[in-house]
């Protein structure tokens, strides 16, 4: 039956009726609920209850609110205490605006008024350019492939180590400092590599490129206000692109062979040049000695000739005969053939001294005495032949 249906006891079934109507209970009064709650809080904090609720409730309200406010104030103060580690700096913002920087140690900032951000300024961070140390991801070609001055392409990979030198700039000046550093590094390295040749970048110029890149990257980061300090730039890999690596390896091998050949030539030159210089010095000394000897001999001959000239002027005939005999003696002493012309005879006798000397040189040591005897005999026979025509001529003359 509906609550407002006519007839019966519908009026007694009103849900909003009072407690005294036919024994049915209605909803509690709001003032009554608040009074009971205040009485319970008063009992908890030592306030009076019962009939004197009017004055006791008023005292409890002031004390309770003060205590609650005190507790909240203490919690608010404690919530603002923070500690900055030795390797960190604390950047404090007040209502969103930069306020101050705190150094390591305990500090306090009003809770919900100041915001504290801790930045580790001592940690060495790293950024990879051209590659990633992530499983399944190695070389990044759009970062690593660069064009050189001689229009060749090289594959370079860099690792940049850096620190935070200005915490407020690091947090507020740039949206993403790490990405800005990566892009600045790529831009600086491309500019430097574009001024170098491929051989220089891949060989002796690697360290120079890395050092120049570190300076250029720092200039860009300072211009952008990133608050970062570049510590080092390390070239992890420098090689030609993969499709031409085989040809480049052949070129490198040829260059190494060239250097090896040059080194061998230098070693040979270092060995032969001192010897040649020594021989040249020896020839020079020999020439000087020969010169001195010839000059001395010429001077001696001149002196001897002058002395002979003096004697010739004194006795021309005797001196002429002596010179002739000395000349014939010197000529015959150097001859290995002797021709004997017998005065008044028709035969010309030939004494083969060269053959006799050759025979004596080729003879063994054990037969030396026999050969000497044969030479003597041959000499005697030759002398006999020489004397026989002379005697015959004498006999005929007689």
Please tell me the overall pLDDT.
Answer: 77
Structural class: alpha+beta
DSSP helix count? 11
What does the radius of gyration come to? 64 Å
What is the global morphology?
rod-shaped
Strand content: 15-25%
Q: Give the terminus-to-terminus CA distance.
A: 212 Å
* Biggest beta sheet attributes: 4 strands, antiparallel
As an assembly, this protein is single chain
Helix content: 55-70%
Low-confidence stretches: 1-13, 15-24, 48-57, 389-398
The arrangement of helices and strands along the chain is: HHEEEEEEEEHEEHHHHEHHEEHH
Number of strands: 13
Could you explain how this protein is built, in words?
This protein has helices at residues 30-44, 53-79, 141-144, 167-172, 177-193, 198-202, 206-224, 245-314, 316-333, 353-362, 368-397, and strands spanning 81-84, 88-94, 97-102, 105-108, 114-120, 125-129, 131-134, 137-139, 145-147, 153-164, 228-239, 338-341, 348-351. The model is unreliable at 1-13, 15-24, 48-57 and 389-398 (pLDDT under 50). Strands 6, 9, 10 and 11 form a 4-stranded antiparallel β-sheet that branches. It is rod-shaped. A hairpin with a 6-residue loop joins strand 12 (338-341) and strand 13. The chain is 56% helix and 19% strand. The protein has 398 residues and is an alpha+beta fold. It has 11 helices and 13 strands. Helix 1 crosses helix 2, helix 5 (177-193) packs across helix 7 and helix 8 (245-314) runs antiparallel to helix 9 (316-333). The longest helix has 70 residues, at 245-314.
Protein traits:
alpha+beta; disordered N terminus; three-stranded antiparallel β-sheet; 398 residues; four-stranded antiparallel β-sheet
